[in-house]
Amino acid sequence: MTQSSCSGSCLCQAVGYEIRPPYVFFQYCHCSRCRKNSGSAHAANILVSEGQFAWTRGEAEVRRYELPDARYFCTAFCSVCGSSLPWRTRNGRFFLVPAGTLDGDPGAPVERNIFWDSRACWYERVDDLPFFAEGPG
């Protein structure tokens, strides 16, 4: 990858990766699946094309779970420590990167909130980003 790339890793450092901008998007997702997977009010996700993503170590430790009825959702995690990790989309053209796994500044701002109408009932709005009732379309 280039000097403008950003690295990421799992908690135990067994798995590492790099991503390179420009990103397809950087957004907060408030859907119930992302909330359950992240254990938080929303997931902070970056989407990159497959050519902008590279595993740097530990790819063999990555496990994937797909919900059978979910068209666009799955999750990946480290088999050693359980940390969330990037996952390849089903069409193979993109990687969804949990921004919380980055080791540094991704070099781009968060653009929007999606699935706002599915947000946790206890979540308080804390920013001025655009909001969409569901995905951006």
Give a quick rundown of the structure.
The protein is mainly β and 137 residues long. Helices cover 5% and strands 34% of the residues.
Summarize the SSE layout with pairings.
Elements: E1 6-9, E2 16-19, E3 25-29, H1 32-38, E4 43-49, E5 53-57, E6 62-66, E7 74-78, E8 84-85, E9 87-88, E10 94-98, E11 112-114
Parallel strand pairs: 3-11
Antiparallel strand pairs: 1-2, 2-5, 3-4, 4-10, 6-7, 7-8, 9-10
Number of strands: 11
CATH architecture: Beta Complex
Helix content: under 10%
Per DSSP, the total helix count is 1
Structural class by sheet pairing and helices: mainly beta
Please trace the helix and strand order, writing H or E for each element: EEEHEEEEEEEE
Q: Name the average pLDDT.
A: 93
Largest sheet: 5 strands, mixed
Roughly what fraction of the amino acids lie in strands? 25-35%
Tell me the Rg in angstroms.
Answer: 15 Å
* CATH domain topology: Metal Binding Protein, Guanine Nucleotide Exchange Factor, Chain A
Task: Tell me the distance between the termini.
Answer: 31 Å
CATH class term: Mainly Beta
Poorly predicted runs: none
Strand order within the widest beta sheet = 9-10-4-3-11
Number of domains: 1
In one word, what is the shape? globular
